[in-house]
Amino acid sequence: MRGWLRLSSTASWSLNDPTARMPAADYDRGLLLGWFTRVLHGALYPDPDLAARTALYPLAWNHKTLADPAAQAAALSHLRS
Predict the structure, then answer these.
(1) Cβ(69)–Cβ(46) under 8 Å?
(2) Residue 71, CB half-sphere, CA atoms under 13 Å: how many?
(3) Where are the alpha helices (DSSP H) in the chain?
(4) pTM of the model
(5) Could you read off the pLDDT of 9-40 as tens digits, one per residue?
(6) At what angle do helices 48-62 and 24-43 cross, to 10 degrees?
(7) CB 58: neighbour CB atoms within 10 A?
(8) Under 8 Å between Cβ of 72 and 60
(9) Contacts of 33 (CB under 8 A, 6+ apart)
(10) Which of 69, 16, 18 is nearest to 56 (CA)?
(11) At what angle do helices 24-43 and 2-14 cross, to 10 degrees?
């Protein structure tokens, strides 16, 4: 987990530092692992509705499919069942 967070942080900062550029595959992997760790963190909230919404947020923020309110409602409904 710490390695994922470190890679995510490095990928994030690599855009601002020309000496720290990463290969495209590592950059993409770092961003995806960052999204994944935020999803895991959100899923740990004690309130199930808040946990589901928080876990879905990083996905909806960058993925058009889950950014649709109807898709979010369907995902929450599925998670509740």
Answers:
(1) no
(2) 11
(3) 2-14, 24-43, 48-62, 64-67, 69-80
(4) 0.56
(5) 887 777 777 777 788 888 888 877 887 887 78
(6) 160
(7) 19
(8) yes
(9) 4, 5, 7, 8
(10) 69
(11) 130
